[in-house]
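User: Show me a protein chain along with its predicted structure.
Assistant: Here is one chain, sequence first, then C-alpha cells.
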Amino acid sequence: MRLKAARLLLVAQPSSYRIVPYLRAARHLGLEVLLGSRGEHSLTAEVHQGLHLDLDHLDTAVKHIVNIAAQRPFAGILGSDDSTVEIAARAAQALGLPHNPPAAARLSRRKDLARAHLAQAGCPVPWHRRVALDQPLPAQTEGLPWPCVLKPLHLSASRGVIRVDTPQAFIAACARIKSIIADSGDDFERSHLLAEAYIDGIEVAYEGYLQQGQLTTLALFDKPEPLVGPFFEETIYVTPSQLDASTQAQIEARVAAACAAYGLSTGPVHAELRVDGNDAWILEVASRTIGGDCARTLDSEDQLNLEALTIALAIGRPVTRPRLEGARGVMMLPIQKAGLLRRVEGIPAAARVPGIEKVDIIAREGQELVPLPEGNQYPGYLFARAATAEQVVTALHTAQAHLNFVVAPVFRLRAQQ
C-alpha cells in the first residue's frame, strides 16, 4: 500500500504571484499541497479545486481549516503574503503545528499596530499618527512634521504611499488614497491611514528567517536609486550591500529587536529600513518573503530556493543558512507610461547585455499598466549577476535602456447623467 505524501496547506489570495513558486517548491520537497483561497469560480485549477476560505473572516476560515485537518492532517500551514499570515498562524496554532503567535503575525501585517508596538518597545520607528478618513482632515494636519508620508494600513509594494509637503497636499492625498483602499474587506483599514515622518536617508531591504526564535540573515539589499517621493516606486535591489560593517550590524540588530518585540519565532522575515546617519529606522518587518519575483535573485542551483526554505520552516524541518556567491540584483521595471500594453520592444538586446541572467516580462498584451500610487504590479523584472554590485547595477540600467513598452491610451465609458 502506497503511503500518501505529507500535506501542506498554502493559504493565499487567488491572484497571488507566490502561488506558483510555492507549489513548485513544495512538490520538489515531496509534499502534497492543498491551496486555501477564496474564489470557487476561479479559472485557476489549484484555486478552484482547493479549499475555499472566507479570507475576510478569520474565525470562519480557521474553523474550516481545523475541520478539514480532522479528515486528513497537515504537516504545516503557510500564509503566502501579508493578508494570509494571520489566518495561517491561527490555524497552525490550533493544530499544534509550527507557527508564529497569531498576535505577532497580525502586528507584522498592520502598519499602525506595528509602529505603535515597536515604539513602545523602544525600537527606532518614524514619528507616526493614525488618520481617520471619516473625520475632518484639516484638524488632523496640526502638529504633523513636514514632509510626511501617508500610507494605507495594510497594502504592500508601495501602493498608495504618498509623500506630502503641505496641509493642502495632505488633504488631496487622503482623497486619492481613499479611492485606492475603497475595496478593502476590512472597515477599519478602509477608513484609516498612517501618517509618518519622512526620513531623508538611504533605504535597504533585509531578507532572513527565524528558527526557534533565532534570526539568520540571508541577504541585505541596497536600493541604489533614490526614493524621495512623491511616490515610492522601487526599482533596483542589489546584494551584497555596500554599507560598512557597523551599519550592516546595526540594521540586523534593529530587525532582530523588532522580531523579538512582535514575538515572531519562526519563518521568513522581510524588512525595510531607512538609514540616515543617526539610526536604522524600521519601516516594515513582515513575516513573509520578499515581494514580487525578487526572490529569484536569491536562487542558487544547489543551495537556496527561498520558497523551499520557507516551507521547510513551516513543517518543522531543520534548515541551514545557504551561502550566496558573487553580486546579484533585480530591477522591478517601472511603469513609465500608463495605458494598454501593445508590445515590448528590445527584449533580445536587453538579454544580451553582459551580466543579465533573465529578462522576465510578465505583463501580457492588452493588460492595463497602472503606475503608482494606484498600481500594484510591475510589468516585468530584470535579473543580473556579476563580480561586483556596481557591475550588477550597470547591467540592469543598460538592459532597461533597450526596453520600450509600447502602450495605447485607455478610453473609459461614462454613463450619461
